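Quick one: co-fold with heme C.
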Amino acid sequence: MRPGRTIFLLLLIAMIGIQFIEVERTNPPVTDEIKAPNDVMRILRTSCYDCHSNETKWRWYSKVAPISWIIADDVEEGRKHLNFSTFESLDTSVKYKKKDEILEEVQNEEMPLNIYLWMHPTASLELPQKARIEKWVTGKSRMLN
Ligand code: HEC
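Sure, here it is.
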């Protein structure tokens, strides 16, 4: 057999093999969902919920290793830092802190994660959405003036 073909076959076998490594793709119950105005909820649902809620839409490619490992890891980490499905159970002071962090991440364009935006271009936040988040968090918006 030619070496190129051997390498291809080995890779193929490896790719099939890693599909059998289980990763957790859970959606635990939604117990204390964040309360926010409808238009803010729409933004959060479109751009953040896949990683920061218990309502992750596990799409087909989230079942294909090794992409599935990256996605499952992002969801696990994302939920650990901020989970909109349990948000209202936090202490008031923590809620304020988390909302400040949300604004900071959005203003600095650190969230949604870039890797996510490649697959979900519609989750990208434009100025009106960022300004809406700002107004929701601070009560006013300087971004639009
Ligand atoms: C692809 C998954 C993904 C998406 C989509 C996503 N995040 Fe994140 N987020 C993460 C991960 C992973 C972390 C933790 C590690 C890090 O900071 O990079 C995080 C961290 C955060 C933190 C930091 C919390 C802390 O404790 O420091 C905030 C705030 C945040 N995200 C807000 C948002 C908001 C708001 C959106 C939507 C506009 C969003 N994220 C969309 C994955 C995501």
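If it helps, The mean pLDDT is 95.
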